[in-house]
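User:
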Amino acid sequence: MRILFITSTLVFWLAVVGFWAAGFWFTAPIAESNGVSADQPRYTLAELAVHNQADDCWMAINGSVYDFTQYLPQHPAPPAMMLDWCGKEATRAFNTKTKGRPHSPYAAQLLSQYRIGMLGEK
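Assistant: Predicted structure:
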């Protein structure tokens, strides 16, 4: 019985470490497959902050910068929900819809249409 417990505990922790390590190893290929490349323009948080109006709405999500100006009228929820995040780093808002629910996979696919660059130092 003791050997069974030790073996199952060891297998459990090996699986946990394996999933944790896989997160590091497979992050870069996923980002590259989504169209993120190192040669895209880079924008700082200060540059992003200037684009904080309905007629000029940029957001940073997961390290990429998006221009959602044309998308605001198409957003299913009232545009005011997105306006709060214009000119800001909005990863938390996108991942939780600010209410704890994630956006749909369809919403994640739409992001690539609005990507204009990367967040970071030039």
